[in-house]
């Protein structure tokens, strides 16, 4: 039996501008998007003690478009630095109340094909086989939210491990035991505290608020029509509409600018600059490969190329081969993962300068 695509259809669209529902006259359109009825933004100045721009990221740990956007989002965060406050909002792509799949194996094969179709555009790594489709992306979203109490760097690394459980291992961390196993060894993480806070009512309330926020898209994204492969029109899901994933909403003295879906770095930089009223530079900040590996601890092929503009990983990097290109680990990260359920069957990276990831069609 084929999977129920209408029941659990994933994001397949990319771009759309978004704005403030309470102040539609301040909504701006991302460059190249086609949103009707937008007007010029206002011109308020943030306080000196606040970041110049706030960024709301609508995302989900199980979304392949969000996984494929990691290189651009990492570089965007690095470039904006302390001038931006970044807030992830988890849209819960697969909810715990969804009807069970009539044929789980067939549904896993369906989603595996979808991931490979997305990978053809993003060049992101993907698992050789998706062993099951996540039962619900709520547990991983709860874990990523709970990790914030232990600091932004730890939260970032926890979320990365959760994404990799699906897109590198093919075994989504969708149960408490699975989550504990995947995040074990994250530097500085108190796993027991994470599991306690994951189960806390306050965490569930916060993620449910994310669910609601994601399902209140602004009118401008409802009829958005743009070029593929992922134009970002709001998705019809049951009785709701929600933002396509990922979607970024920039808010600042220049107004609000929405950039949903799959976009190049330049579009995000221009959106940030517009939201900041032209007060942000557009030059991306890149690092040497050694520094990038030290900063992020794991690098995909697209991340190595975009974040460092280098074609070879550092000599000490540990390579993991996936179903589509390598994932490189910092040696300390490889040792830390030896404590987790993340198998490190790898060797020191030896990649020629002309090796590039190839799309899976």
Radius of gyration: 20 Å
Helix content: 25-40%
Number of helices: 13
Shape: globular
N-C termini distance? 23 Å
Approximately how much beta-strand content do the residues carry? 5-15%
Helix vs. strand class: alpha+beta
In total, the number of strands is 11
Largest sheet: number of strands, sense, barrel closure: 5 strands, mixed
Low-pLDDT segments, ≥5 res:
1-48, 346-361
What number is the mean pLDDT? 83
Side by side, the strands of the main sheet go 1-7-6-2-3
* Order of SSEs: HEEHHEHHHHHHEEEEHHEHEEHE
Structure summarized in a few sentences:
The protein has helices spanning 5-8, 64-68, 70-80, 104-122, 138-146, 152-167, 176-183, 191-198, 201-214, 265-275, 289-296, 301-308, 331-337; strands at 27-29, 53-59, 84-90, 235-237, 240-242, 247-252, 255-260, 298-300, 318-321, 326-329, 346-348.
Plain-language structure description:
The chain is an alpha+beta fold and 361 residues long. 35% of the residues lie in helices and 14% in strands. Strands 1-7-6-2-3 form a 5-stranded mixed β-sheet, with helices on both faces. Helix 5 crosses helix 9. The protein is globular.
């Amino acid at each position: 039996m084929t999977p129920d695509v209408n029941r659990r259809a994933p994001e397949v669209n990319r771009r759309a501008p978004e704005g403030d529902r309470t102040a539609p006259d301040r909504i701006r359109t991302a460059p190249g998007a086609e949103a009707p009825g937008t007007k010029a933004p206002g011109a308020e100045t943030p306080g000196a003690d606040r970041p110049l721009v706030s960024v709301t990221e609508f995302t989900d740990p199980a979304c392949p478009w969000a996984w494929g956007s990691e290189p651009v989002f990492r570089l965007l965060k690095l470039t904006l630095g302390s001038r931006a406050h970044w807030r992830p909002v988890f849209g819960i792509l697969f909810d715990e109340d969804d009807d069970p799949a009539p044929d789980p194996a067939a549904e896993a094969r369906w989603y595996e094909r979808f991931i490979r179709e997305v990978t053809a555009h993003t060049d992101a790594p993907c698992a050789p086989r998706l062993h099951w489709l996540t039962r619900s992306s709520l547990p991983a979203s709860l874990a990523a939210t709970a990790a914030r109490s232990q600091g932004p760097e730890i939260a970032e690394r926890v979320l990365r491990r959760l994404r990799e459980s699906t897109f590198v291992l093919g075994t989504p961390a969708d149960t408490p035991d699975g989550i504990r196993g995947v995040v074990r060894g994250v530097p500085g993480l108190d796993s027991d505290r994470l599991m306690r806070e994951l189960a806390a009512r306050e965490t569930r309330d916060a993620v449910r608020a994310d669910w609601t926020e994601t399902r209140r898209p602004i009118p401008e994204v409802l009829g958005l029509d743009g070029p593929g492969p992922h134009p970002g029109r709001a998705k019809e899901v049951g009785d709701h509409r929600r933002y396509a994933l990922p979607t970024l909403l920039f808010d600042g003295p220049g107004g609000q600018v929405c950039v949903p879906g799959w976009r190049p770095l330049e579009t995000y930089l221009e959106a940030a600059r517009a939201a900041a009223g032209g007060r942000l530079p557009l030059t991306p900040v890149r690092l040497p490969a050694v520094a990038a590996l030290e900063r992020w601890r794991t690098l995909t092929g697209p991340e190595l190329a975009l974040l460092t503009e280098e074609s070879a990983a550092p000599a000490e990097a540990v390579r993991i081969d996936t179903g589509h290109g390598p994932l490189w680990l910092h040696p300390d990260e490889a040792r830390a993962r030896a404590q987790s359920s993340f198998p490190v069957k790898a060797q020191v990276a030896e990649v020629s300068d002309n090796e590039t990831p190839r799309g899976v069609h």
